[in-house]
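User: Could you check the structure of this?
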Amino acid sequence: MSVSTPLLVFNAVTPAELSELITETTRTTLDAHGLDSSVVPEGATVERPRNPEHGDYATNIAMQVAKKAGTNPRELGTWLAESLAGHDGIDEATVAGPGFINIRLAAAAQGKIVEQILASGADFGHGDEFAGTAINLEFVSANPTGPIHLGGTRWAAVGDALGRVLTARGAKVTREYYFNDHGAQIDRFARSLLAAAKGEPTPEDGYGGDYIQDIASQIVEKNPGWQQLSAEDAQELFRSQGVDLMFAHIKRTLAEFGTEFDVYFHENSLFESGAVEAAIQKIKDNGNLYEADGAWWLRSTNFGDDKDRVVIKSDGNAAYIAGDIAYVADKFDRGHNLCIYMLGADHHGYIARLRAAAAAMGYDPEQVEVLIGQLVNLVKDGKAVRMSKRAGTVITLDDLVEAIGVDAARYALIRSSVDSSLDIDMDLWASQSNDNPVFYVQYAHARLCSLGRKAADLGVTREGADLALLTHDREGDLIRTLGEFPAVVKTAAELREPHRVARYAEALAGAFHRFYDACQILPKPSDDEQTVAENKALFAARLSLASAARQTLANALELLGVSAPERM
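Assistant: Sure, the predicted structure tokens are below.
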């Protein structure tokens, strides 16, 4: 028994659209057989078979729902295959094994995705499922006591890419840098600068490196009378000007790295404005703060933390978490309904702590997310690089960019999950070879641009393209890879994993290179006029496919904040 599905006109080829068709077909088919269609999930799983001979796509929907609906997978799979095969966009649907359905698409339906991409342009891959979500995305937030180290650099790349991905799927994203200008580390920084100005050794708990001497020299030059100041005033001079100079360097370095922020939030403002005091009073009043052993404690264990946290120390000074409590409240009060913190590997304890802080203030802790980034190492000649030219100890953003360039640095940092530590092979990422992922992807884009220029020289245009002619295996593989892009970006946004976009870009580059090697895209110099005329529609179709690939590759690189060169 074949069952039609009039609810959905299937005229394109993206996995999302095919999933929708399969879902609707499954529901309609079960209803037609008097079976329970409520067991069908929202979206059927659609995958590319490992063996292309099995078809273009496959789904396990029959195996997933048959027993729940009251039949067996093979029987349901047979019904579905018959129904699906009746659609104009599908050439063939067959049942395999215990109930897998293999699907081969019609060439005309596959060609629709090319039309979609060319029509959408820079918007291809965008969506609206995050519309209405106002996200505060806080990342880097390195202390203004030295240049940004490799851990912070990883967040500078990944955080920026995540912001781009979330924006592409409809979110309103505020990129925020939390400027920690309050606390003991700032005092140590000032003492280090003052010691450098005096020609004294770096304090035992201080900061070393050439940058300290550079900043100290700048302050001395601007303030020729600094030596006449009292010890207290000299400390304050080097603190205030040193922090400003250090932060100016950080901002300049980040901008050169392609990472910009909407808000630079000063921690000190929370104390100066009375926000910390107000937050503490609020959690005293609502019973989430209690006094014990001369200190005030947050009842954080009530909200999932492993222990209660000191908010006001026994000496009357605020603990670090006091600022965190006021800050999370400030984020929500500014209209954000999702706060994402991107923190370093040593901040695991902050996950429960920040969620508890939000809950204690009366906000939804589910709207607080904490992403933890693991460590990054530079490797050269098989050995870890430990020393920085400027910082004296840790490797910095400046060191990485100097070694391999901005594009390679960003791509190398983004393409791996932040859950795992990362070794960056400087020789590999500086090389111009296909082993270098960023070179491989950028070269594909440049090659596509070159194709466009050659087409213009030959007078070949996309006019008159018959996309149904794109029947070669390599053409089909490239089209199906292009069709996956929106789902990749959507998943990257949902899982906060922009590395998926980088890996996709590499897969797309590979699919294009294989298409380029197997298919004649443009007329050869040896082709006569008749041959060119006979193949005009095919050349136009292949040029259209190449243009769609170039657009998609450019869109992917844009989401990564990596350039898409037209020539290499």
